[in-house]
Amino acid sequence: MPLFNDRPVVFVVEDGEGTRELNCLVLESFGFTCRSATTIDDALRLIRSDPRIDIVFSDIHFPGNLTGVDLALVVRQEPLNLPVLLTSGLAIEYVQQILPDGLAFLAKPYTPEQLLAAIRSVIDIKHALPSIPAT
């Protein structure tokens, strides 16, 4: 049995408390460690201070000026170089317009199995692609 510290760490960014807690519960039941934040600013601060994070899973729409897309553009660059999976219940046509190339997306609602498959897929892609240089 792997040690707790050997579990992949997913950082969940979601302003809906129930959704955030359910996502963490599901991910932990599948063997991940879950860290979380309710705002983009808090997420950036916490992600920058925790080198153990393996992937960021974030909603797109948040109150305020910053979005999950903004978060993704920052954490995908060096030195963080983290894989990102974005999610939203917004119309897929809108999401396709704002989603930069190369960002993974999981439409809401999703099942626990779909979440697990998407997280695993993005983690696997991360190990196959070079890092994105900072601009």
Structural overview:
The protein has 135 residues and is of the alpha/beta class. It has a single domain, classed as 3-Layer(aba) Sandwich (Rossmann fold), CATH 3.40.50.2300. It is 39% helix and 18% strand. It has five helices and five strands; from the N terminus they run βαβαβαβαβα. The protein has a five-stranded parallel β-sheet with strand order 2-1-3-4-5, sandwiched between helices.
Number of strands: 5
Estimate nothing, just give the exact number of structural domains.
Answer: 1
State the secondary-structure class: alpha/beta
| Helical percentage | 25-40%
Strand line-up in the sheet with most strands:
2-1-3-4-5
CATH architecture: 3-Layer(aba) Sandwich
- What's the helix-strand series? EHEHEHEHEH
The main β sheet shows up as: 5 strands, parallel
Question: Given the C-alpha coordinates, what overall shape results?
Answer: globular
Q: Which radius of gyration do the C-alpha atoms yield?
A: 14 Å
For the residues shown, what is the average pLDDT?
Answer: 89
Summarize the structure in short.
The protein is an alpha/beta fold. Helices cover 39% and strands 18% of the residues. It has 5 helices and 5 strands; from the N terminus they run βαβαβαβαβα.
Secondary-structure topology with pairs:
Elements: E1 9-13, H1 17-29, E2 33-37, H2 40-48, E3 55-59, H3 68-75, E4 84-88, H4 92-98, E5 104-107, H5 112-126
Parallel strand pairs: 1-2, 1-3, 3-4, 4-5
Helix pairs in contact: 2-3
